[in-house]
């Protein structure tokens, strides 16, 4: 019997912000991104990145769900749209996430529903946002 081996990916992010300018985000795998701060600036702000993480995770999880359900051969695409409602006061936070999956392929409505709900169950990001993860802050 062969042993299943899962390759681990280095994860995390570092934000560097000087006295002026925008935060620069770097990942251990070489990803880089400049974060915008003004409402009219094109690009990603911190909330966009949060919504993007959830959207990407749901999309990937929908494909995984279709594969697990044995219907990947009929799966064409998925579009995950995530928005939300931000609190008016302190502490600043997202009060509600609105998620919409548009699943394309040769599926009836019950199968699309099953894929979508399984995707939400699989998604690490949605599972984390629903949980009470511990936060540990240290000062260097």
Structure description:
With 140 residues, this protein is of the alpha+beta class. The chain has two domains: 6-41, no CATH class; 45-130, GMP Synthetase, Chain A, domain 3 (2-Layer Sandwich), CATH 3.30.300.20. Helices cover 31% and strands 24% of the residues. It is built from three helices and five strands, in the order βββαββαα. It has helices spanning 46-68, 109-122, 124-130, and strands spanning 14-16, 24-26, 32-34, 75-86, 94-105. The strands form two sheets. The chain has a three-stranded antiparallel β-sheet, with no helix packed on it. It has a two-stranded antiparallel ribbon with strand order 4-5. A hairpin with a 7-residue loop joins strand 1 (14-16) and strand 2. Helix 1 crosses helix 2 (109-122). The longest helix has 23 residues, at 46-68. The N and C termini lie far apart (47 Å). The mean pLDDT is 94.
């Amino acid at each position: 019997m062969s042993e299943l081996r899962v390759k681990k990916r280095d994860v995390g992010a570092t934000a560097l912000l000087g006295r002026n300018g925008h935060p620069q985000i770097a990942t251990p795998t070489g990803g880089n991104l400049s974060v915008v701060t003004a409402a009219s600036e094109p690009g990603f702000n911190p909330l966009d990145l949060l919504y993007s993480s959830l959207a990407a995770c749901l999309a990937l999880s929908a494909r995984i769900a279709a594969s697990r359900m044995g219907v990947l051969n009929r799966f064409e695409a998925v579009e995950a749209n995530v928005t939300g409602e931000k609190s008016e006061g302190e502490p600043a936070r997202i009060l509600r996430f609105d998620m919409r999956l548009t699943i394309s392929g040769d599926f009836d409505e019950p199968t699309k529903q099953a894929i979508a709900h399984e995707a939400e169950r699989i998604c690490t990001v949605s599972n984390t946002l629903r949980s009470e993860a511990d936060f540990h802050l240290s000062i260097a």
